[in-house]
Write a structure and sequence with these properties.
Length: about 210
């Protein structure tokens, strides 16, 4: 109902503007009339937008992210619109390493009554399958990964560490960074995960361990 009222006010305003343009018999009078009507419409529209923002009625939001210009989403709140966009990435975006996507929700029907809402979505890559239906067994052999003998496969990185491990079944590598950085906004101290395919060295290590 609120959306219909906003649409009807817009239609009436367009009709009045049309009348003023087609009947300029008294320009000063028409100008004063339009200014008064505009003030009245603005007051009504602002009140309706506030009522709409406080309600559970679905309204239009413009949602943008790091990869696209934006989409129109009907939702009952900015948080709901944000989650709907985030779910579309969770369901359809396959990443090879941890990726951060900044999502911003801009009010359309409630412009002025709601402020833009932003949040960062973290997408981790799915753990690849191991071989022969095995569960990954992540190991840290010094002879393969290097580093220091007391803590093989671990290197300092900023305020955290990069941890490299290898699966003793399939030879894939897992790289965990506890001081990762979001390349879009520069935020540091994040947690990221990535996986690498097995190579000759890791497969040779498995063969020697058997």
């Amino acid at each position: 109902a609120l959306l219909e009222a906003l649409a009807e006010i817009g239609r009436i305003e367009e009709e009045l503007n049309w009348q003023a343009e087609t009947d300029p018999s008294d320009p000063d009078y028409l100008y004063d009339l339009l200014c008064a009507e505009q003030d009245m419409f603005d007051s009504i529209v602002n009140r309706l937008r506030k009522d709409l923002a406080a309600s559970d009625e679905k309204r239009l939001y413009h949602v943008s992210d790091d990869y696209s210009g934006g989409d129109g989403i009907m939702a009952s709140s900015q948080e709901e619109a944000w989650e709907e966009m985030a779910d579309s990435f969770r369901d359809g975006e396959r990443v090879e390493k941890t990726t951060w996507i900044d999502i911003t929700v801009w009010p359309r029907d409630t412009e002025g009554a709601e402020t833009p809402f932003s949040g960062t979505l973290t997408l981790d890559p799915p753990e690849p399958d191991c071989m022969d239906d095995e569960e990954h067994d992540w190991q840290s052999p010094y002879e393969l990964l290097g580093g220091c003998q007391e803590n093989p496969g671990v290197w300092g990185h900023g305020g955290g560490v990069v941890i490299r491990s290898v699966c003793k079944h399939c030879g894939r590598y897992k790289i965990t960074d506890t001081w990762a950085q979001n390349p879009y906004n520069g935020e540091q101290g994040l947690h990221s995960v990535a996986y690498e395919e097995a190579d000759e060295a890791s497969l040779a290590w498995i063969a020697e361990s058997e």
